[in-house]
Amino acid sequence: xxxxxxxxxxxxxxxxxxxxxxxxxxxxxxxxxxxxxxxxxxxxxxxxxxxxxxxxxxxxxxxxxxxxxxxxxxxxxxxxxxxxxxxxxxxxxxxxxxxxxxxxxxxxxxxxxxxxxxxxxxxxxxxxxxxxxxxxxxxxxxxxxxxxxxxxxxxxxxxxxxxxxxxxxxxxxxxxxxxxxxxxxxxxxxxxxxxxxxxxxxxxxxxxxxxxxxxxxxxxxxxxxxxxxxxxxxxxxxxxxxxxxxxxxxxxxxxxxxxxxxxxxxxxxxxxxxxxxxxxxxxxxxxxxxxxxxxxxxxxxxxxxxxxxxxxxxxxxxxxxxxxxxxxxxxxxxxxxxxxxxxxxxxxxxxxxxxxxxxxxxxxxxxxxxxxxxxxxxxxxxxxxxxxxxxxxxxxxxxxx
Length: 401
Description:
single chain
């Protein structure tokens, strides 16, 4: 190794760690770590091993197991720490190239180095390398979505995210993934504990309340959740999140859908649920007028109820009785469109003012404009119709962060 003959060094040291006389010798494993570290740094000999840095790390770890107080390891912690940088750089490159399985392995190796150095009570390493764990979990999560049959990646992602949640790491995505996972697993204890923690850490984030509502829907306990929300609003009437989530819950109960999003028959108390949802959304809007969520949902409720009237109109015949029904339904449809219009327009104005929209915002932006187009067409407001039509065609250009 000192002479630069790394091919010979590799040959000899590989024999040493497999030979019965030296396979438990800490020096053999330490030198193997040194040899493979040199191979990883050598342009000439790097191809001697497909993963020289990984072999080096494993060798150092084995040496430390055999002699925890090995002075060579303690002296060379900085050299071992350099492996961390190598793994990190390789992981970032792989992640950017969407090679998530490789990124996961290399970020995991970076985590192992941190833990290894920390275990030796050196100045290097931390109790938990949060950024490495987060990136390792993100890589595993992306690989799980790219290859759903590889369930071990999602399990690894969740294990990493849970470590972060255990230290109350503030990242909304971490909690969203955990809640979705525990919901699918029907792990009530984990789900509720995670939901409670998320709501404490992110009191202004409505997504967690909606995920909690999804849990109660899946478990057939919507009435229980509704009562909890009503009690919360009664206790804290000016809480935007509680009022918004109450509106979403009532809206969801008034307009049930199956697991793939198809409309189910309206409940017998549809009108009562509808009116309660309207009041909850209006209260949320009064608290935060410039939030697009309650504006869009309220506008959509009226728009969809107008569509219900339109569907009934299409089923009517030409009899005098049907004509009378037609007049009544037409008035009801126009009234609902008039009621929904200002909320859809407000939604459009809020999102149109943003230079970039995330995927969910873009979807809402497009749906709001689609509704406005129909309203403008019915009102013969050609200029507004053409303006919205052009904006809708170019909406995709607003997709960003």
